[in-house]
Amino acid sequence: MPVTDVQHDLENRTLTIVADFAAPVRRVWQIYADPRQLEKIWGPPEYPATVVDHDLRPGGRVTYYMTGPEGDKHAGYWEITAVDEPNGFSFDDGFADQDFNPNPDLPVSKNVFTFAAHDGGTRATFLSTYASVKALQQVLDMGVIEGASAAINQIDGFLAG
Fold it and tell me: What are the residue boundaries of the structural domains of the chain, listed by start?
């Protein structure tokens, strides 16, 4: 499994997931830079993602929805704040309604995804920071660790295919 470490820190309001991939940094970057590849790994297996808009540049926006086993759709968005191709990018990640308007009842996280050469492959660090302990606890209760880990763990199979 690619995920090697998961830490949440309520005091600092952070969730950090570390994963190692047997692929070069540029190849891992391409998964996030290409909306069709991103769809293969963004949602957990039982909630596959469909990327609607994909503008991976500072000030750009990525919109997507995940479709559940019963056909239920859950929308979200990224507002891109920084890009350092192929080493990573930063974005605000939020929940949205079906028209991709932010859902004010659910937390927004500030994310920094970094990709670095490690042991002949890539070490990815996914850092999410929340505005409050309550916001972090809300997504923890929603299963963010399990969902994000399941999604990230799909990357190895995707790279091998």
Answer: 3-160
CA distance 1 to 152: 9
Backbone angles phi, psi at 152, to 5 degrees: -65, -35
| pLDDT tens-digit series, residues 75-134 | 999 999 999 999 999 999 999 999 999 999 999 999 999 999 999 999 999 999 999 999
| Single pTM value for the model | 0.95
Whether 107 and 136 have beta carbons less than 8 Å apart is answered as yes
Q: What's residue 70's pLDDT?
A: 96
Q: How far apart are alpha carbons 24 and 74 in whole angstroms?
A: 32
> Rounded CA gap, 69 and 113, in Å?
28
**Cis peptide upstream of residue 86 (ω within 30 degrees of 0):** yes
109-118/14-21 β-pairing: unpaired
Q: Which of 68, 44, 70 is nearest to 145 (CA)?
A: 44
> What CATH class has 3-160?
alpha beta
Among all chains, which residue has been given the structure tokens 């750009």?
60
Q: Position 157: which residue type?
A: G
